Structures are given as structure tokens and as C-alpha cells.
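Subject: Interface between my chains keeps coming out wrong

I've been trying for a while to get a sensible model of this assembly. When I model each chain on its own everything looks fine, but I need the whole thing in one frame so I can look at the contacts. Pasting all components below, labels as-is. Any help appreciated, I'm running out of ideas.
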Amino acid sequence: MENSTLKPMDSEQLREYGHQMVDFIADYYKTIESFPVRSQVKPGYLRELLPDSAPKHPESLQDVLNDVRQKIIPGVTHWQSPDYFAYYPSNSSTAGFLGEMLSAGFNIVGFSWVTSPAATELEVIVLDWLAKMLKLPNEFLSSGQGGGVIQGTASEAILVVLLAARDKVLRKVGRNSLEKLVVYASDQTHAALQKACQIAGIYPENFRVLKADSNTNYALIPDKLQEAIMNDFSSGLIPFFLCATVGTTSSAAVDPLSELGKIAKANDMWFHVDAAYAGSACICPEYRHHIDGIEEATSFGMNAHKWFLTNFDCSVLWDQNALIQSLSTNPEYLKNKASQENNVVDFKDWQIPLGRRFRSLKLWMVLRLYGLENLQSYIRNHIKLAEQFKELVCSDHRFEVVAPRTFSLVCFRLIPREGDQDNGYNLNYNLLDAVNSSGKIFISHTVLSGKFVLRFAVGAPLTEESHVKAAWKVLQDQATILLTDQ
Amino acid sequence: MENSTLKPMDSEQLREYGHQMVDFIADYYKTIESFPVRSQVKPGYLRELLPDSAPKHPESLQDVLNDVRQKIIPGVTHWQSPDYFAYYPSNSSTAGFLGEMLSAGFNIVGFSWVTSPAATELEVIVLDWLAKMLKLPNEFLSSGQGGGVIQGTASEAILVVLLAARDKVLRKVGRNSLEKLVVYASDQTHAALQKACQIAGIYPENFRVLKADSNTNYALIPDKLQEAIMNDFSSGLIPFFLCATVGTTSSAAVDPLSELGKIAKANDMWFHVDAAYAGSACICPEYRHHIDGIEEATSFGMNAHKWFLTNFDCSVLWDQNALIQSLSTNPEYLKNKASQENNVVDFKDWQIPLGRRFRSLKLWMVLRLYGLENLQSYIRNHIKLAEQFKELVCSDHRFEVVAPRTFSLVCFRLIPREGDQDNGYNLNYNLLDAVNSSGKIFISHTVLSGKFVLRFAVGAPLTEESHVKAAWKVLQDQATILLTDQ
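Reply #2:
Try treating it as a single job with all components included. I did that and got this:
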């Protein structure tokens, strides 16, 4: 009896429950503006609302959905809210969502070609499409030596290229030279690089963090790089990896790829370009120049899950070299004719994990259901809204813009009074806390040249001009309260 | 004009298209038995069917779904087919699917608690539930020093614990002792460990692969481990990491945790237990003994996405120590009050990537919509079916069972004729190729003690007794053809 009761994949139950879930999610989007953008719960809130152990007997979908409504949603920070301006966006879209559904429906594990040829081949094809939209050099296409691969996140993309670079140089100079390997990047580079260095065993004292400041709008200075490399060579160290960023996390700064790439090439270093956020903008001809020089890069990454309507996670990495020399395994139980005959790609050898989802489906659906021109308009609209926000900031003498608005991010702050002890740190920290605690908008912060700076990143799919204007009013009103209280 | 056309997240379009996709997927499951289980396409098939570049203008969902039907599905290997018996299962279920939908709907990025407190807190709670179902020691609960965390795959779980172990010992003995660190495991351990060693920079010659054979049913022999450790100590090396497996990839062998754990403890080594596949069975009291000794482990992992109805990916890792000393980063732009006050978990510091999906939703839905008793029956039913298959094999004198059936995997082969030059390699390779090329079933293989062995892993959610019987008939019929042709 008990052996026959559970039918966990009954097509008609899937249909019935699936329809209920679609309505639940559509209703969520319909009412998304009614929730506090940043969750306002206190740490530990959920423990008090849920039982201590799993149920013995099945519960109904209705009960679960009620709990989602009453217990989970209050603890959700609504990244898809049109009033979300924190960090960088993490786009959801109907097309991306449908792709996630289909991928979860097939639920294949595409580690080798044979485990679902369509998963591997669609990924290769769609990444060629995207490479062409970005006008990447031919070396990054699958017809060249390398090709594209979908990683989970930019952190993983940076890690796999760092490992490939590490192993390439160690094969030449010997394993025990690990302590001599030097990595270069600006102090604006994402913390993922530091973490990757830690994982790869790069000595912390050999991670050269080059200072970038407002003189170059927080871009890495080629002369500084050149100097550091020369110093390291003369100390007997081995410079081997340079990471540049197009659209840094703090201020969307753009490192000068051409000049940096030439230095890397002259010194036989791996040159990785991380365009996690801003890469998407480069499908517009007027922004493509930000990746001029990309032909000097060894590898290039962008996150389609940030500002490109593809649901998280979908981080795209192209490289001119194969990663497989560092990441391959070939155990007996995974051998198969197609792989042995060497005429297929096995993506397990291009990434850290063995298993992988069918993520190309969602990117394919985004590209097909929206098309290039719509995607370009989408990007342009956000950049236009960011420019409008910047103008609003400029029009209020209490505020200042702290870094150039290059894409859809505005860095700004309340100007501290003369003689302010902490250069406006508390003032702006309090403004940040006040607006985020209001639940009306969610923004984030950074520190630039010692200044505590507010970050306003436009990029949620539902954000329109009215939301940007309303956000500015929230900021102005809270500023007025704070300045009056001072 | 162009700026206002695209509404990529319109709730009513999401609703309409979402319903269409639910029907598409439900229909897929309804007809899943009509497809060849292992895709029969040739390498490069999809390139000929799709255009060379992304469309400029939007296409219709109907066109995309037609392409999925006509171009993608032929290239899918149907892991959810009831006739799928290859590798180990990758379960999809209605509950797991709904969890994926909801996670894609919220599309949050839960790197820090504040980015969606519910995502972090539900994960902590649900992994406590699962730990209790498995009767794990209290040290693995969130009330202890460690707790559980969802990783993408067992490969990532093994990598993060290896890194934590590496950095812990290097903090004691100094970074330049990396070359002395030694890792131990049996030759039946998953290739993920070798890859993790490569990534972590463990010297290949310091990866002790201890031979296991049929005398112990392919389990690691404690005496061999003890001996290897002593040898390494006397050579001035530093034994620091032991990986045991409960349910190996090739034959579902179980390493003796208690004895191994005592050796690891006596030598101050990190002891990781990988129960990626078989861990799920340990929710049944009669199988729990396979992880007796788990209280000696430093960390323990199982894949809920394999045999536990939770759609890929969902690999659960518990540890008694925090991983955060190896994996933490704390850049300014991610700082926030809750994290600074140190009273919340930030899962970004327990994993390789920064970003993470809301994966606990699907595990929560599986546990609630099915309940403990149903989940136990589900496991028991597969084990019963595997036992039935084993009996069928035993009843045909042409075949032999090659390793004990401990869970739901049967390792078997056609017995080679006396004097067979390659000990039945070609005979069984050809049988494998014949049944998989028939499209009727999909099985995989391994090599045990030099024998080419067929693996029949029961575990797909739709598999019933009739499918197992039909699969056996396919194998018998193909065997008859092969043996007649010889």
C-alpha cells in the first residue's frame, strides 16, 4: 500500500499545481509595489513562525502558498520591485522565467554532451549569438580556439580563468613557484578576485591592488601597472594575471582595456576582462567603445543575469584558450563514445562543478522573445533614467554627484557641512538607513576616496520614470528631516 | 517610442505565457515515454537547425515552443523518463518544480542575510529539518557550531571543505608547507575530489588513492589508511584530509565511517563524508546504519537533487566548523548593519560564488508536500525494484551480478566465454551500446577490478515495476542477438 501512494511526478498534478503557481507569481508581480522593498524583518524572525521539524504527512499546496504569503514574503527583499535601486540589478523577465521553468521541467544534468546534446549545443550557439551582438573578436567564437560557457556567477568565471592561468604558468616554471606568482588589479576590482586568489593559493602579498582615484574616475592607470610589473620582475617574482573591469562595482568605472592589454601581452600575462554589469550595455553601438581593446583580452565575462533580463544565474564567460587543461576529469563511469571520439564539447571540463543545468534555454528565450532592438532600447531607457536622476541630484544644492554617470549608476551624497568631523560619513549613513528603513526604496552604498557614497543603480525591469522621480522625493524628504535634526 | 515598447515583466503576460508553459511541460511528462531515452542525435545537429545570429525583432512564444518540440527535444536525454537507469538519478517532482518556479519568480540574489532574510533563514531551518530526518549529530545543527548550507553540487561541497581544511592546517604550519599536505581516499571516490585537489593546489603525488577491491565490496580498508598515514608522517608529510563515501559512484560501496573517523581524529585530520547518492536512503531507519559513525565526521554532504525529489541543483552540506575562515570577503559595498552586528548568517561566506538562488524553497516544498513517510516509501520502493532487477539478472545464467546491491543500484555483466581475450570488455561494451542506441532504455557503465560492468540505477520518479521488467527484456533480447552473432 504505502509503496504505491506517492506519485511525485504525475503530469496532471503538475499541470494543476503549476497553473496555481503561475497565478501566484503573476499576482506577486501585480502587487509587488505594495511590499517594503528591503525586507523589514528582524534576524531570527522565521524560526518563530515555522515548526521544528519536517511533517510526517503531506500538507496541501494551499497551506504552503499561504505560508509563502504570510511568512516568506515579509522576509523577501524585492529585487524585482520597480523601487529597487541597490547594488546592481538582477533582472527577471517573462522570457527568463519561462526559460527557468523549461529548464526545471527537463531537469537534465548536462555535464557531458551525451547527457543532453541540446543543452551543450544550444549553449555554444547562443553564446556565439551574444558574442556577435557584442562584436567580440572571432577568437571568442566557437569557430575559434575557445568559445563561450555559462558559469553560475562572475565569481566562478574569475576563479576558473585564474586557475587556468595559474596552471598554465606553473606547467612552465614548476609547481613550487606558486609563491612567486603575482596578480594585478585595481582597488576597485570586485572582491571575487581576492577570493579567487585565496582559493587558488596565490600568496596574499602577491596580490597587487593598485590604487585608482578620482583623477582617472577610478580607472586603473596603465603606468602604475607597468611600474608594478617591472618591480616584481626585478624582485624575481612572476607577473601572470591581470584583471580589468568594465563597470566597477562601486562606481561603474571603466579600465582602459587597450593600454592594459598591451602591457599584459608584452609580459605574457593572462588578461581577464570582467564586464559583469556593464557588458550588457555594449550591445548598443554608442556604448560598444567601452570594450574597445577587448581583442587584447584572454578572457571576457558578463552577467546576463544582471541587466540582460535573464533570470539568475547566468554568467557568460568567453575565452580564447580552453579551460580544460585545469578543469578536466575523465573517470571511467563518465566515458562515452562521443567524448572519446573528441568531436564534442563536454562543459564539465570548463567549470568547477560536474553537474550543470540547462541554462542556455533562458538566454535563448530572452534573445528570441525580445530581439536585439528591444534589448538595446531597454538598456538605453535605464541609462536615460539614470541621467535624469543625476540631473535631479545636481539641481539640489545640498547634494553632490561623486563620480561620472557612465551607465545606469549614479554615485552621490549629501554634502557635509564645513568642519564635519567625519566628512559626511554619519550624515549619509543615516540617510541610507532612513530611506531603506522606510521600505519605499532600496539603495546601497560604497566608499570612494574615503567618502561614504550612496549608489543609485537603475536597472529593474519594472522601473519607469515615475519611480525614479518618487525615489528622489523620498531621498529629498529624508534629507530634509536629517538636516533639520542636526 | 522605442523606449516604451518592451515590457519584459508584465504580470498579465507572465500569467498568459506561464500557463502555456505549464501545459507544455505537463504534456511533455505525459508523453515522455514516447521519446528515445538517450538522445540519438549526432554531434553538431543543432547548428544546422538554428540561425547564425540572434533575431533583431521579437519572435512569438508559439514559434519558440515549436522549436523546442522539433529541434530541442530530439537533443534531450530524458533524465525524467521512467526508462532512465543511467549514472544516478536526478529527480524532478511536482514539488521541486514548483519550488524552482517560485525561486525564479522572486529572483532574489541571497548572498547576505539582508538581501532576503527569508532565503537565509528558510535554508537554515530546512537543513535542520533534514539533519533531524537523517539523525545527524547535534553538532551539525544550526544550534551547534556549524550548520547546513545548500551548495550547487557535491563537487562544490567537496571543494569548500577541502579549502577550509587546507587553510586550517596552513595557518598552523605555514603557507609554504602546501607541498607537504596529503589527501586520502579510496580509488572508488568520485573524481570531484581529484578536481578539488587540483584546484586547491594539492600536489598530485600527495593524493593517496587507496585501492579498494571486491574483498571489501569496494570499501576503503582502515588498515591501509592507517599504514599510508604512518608512511607519510615518517616521510615528513602532513596528512590532513580524508574523504569517505557512502554509496560510491561505481558500485554504491559504503566506507566504514566509524573506523575511518577514529583514524582521522587520532591524526587531527579533517574527515569529510560524501553521501551524495545514498544519503537520501538514510532517512529510513533500516538504512540509517550506513552512516553510523557520522559523529566522527567533520563534514557531511548529500545531494537532495539526486534521489530526493528536489530538482537540480541542491547539494546539502553540513559541517561542524565554519567554512567562513577560508571563504569570507567583506568589501565596503556589501556591508550592512545586520552583517556588521554579527547576528546573522551570510551564506556568501560558506560557498565559492557570491550570488545564490533561493534554493531552500524547493527543498521546503518537497518536505511539506510529500512528508517524511511518503519520502521513506519512495526510497524503499526504488530499492525493492532494484532487488527485483537483481533477481532477474541472477535468474539468467548468461549474466552475473558483480557487486552487492546495497541501495538501488545493480552492477552486472554478461559473463564472457572461457578464454575471452578481453574478459568480456567488448561483449559488455557492445551490449551497452546496443541498448542505449535502441532508445528504449539508458544505462551506464563502470570498471570494477578490471571488469567492464553495466550499471542499472533505479531512481527516476516515474519508474514502476513494469519499466524495470521491460528494461530487463531489452537487455536480454540484445544479449541474445549479441551472443548469437559471436
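Reply #3:
Confirming on my end. Chain B has a mean pLDDT of 96.
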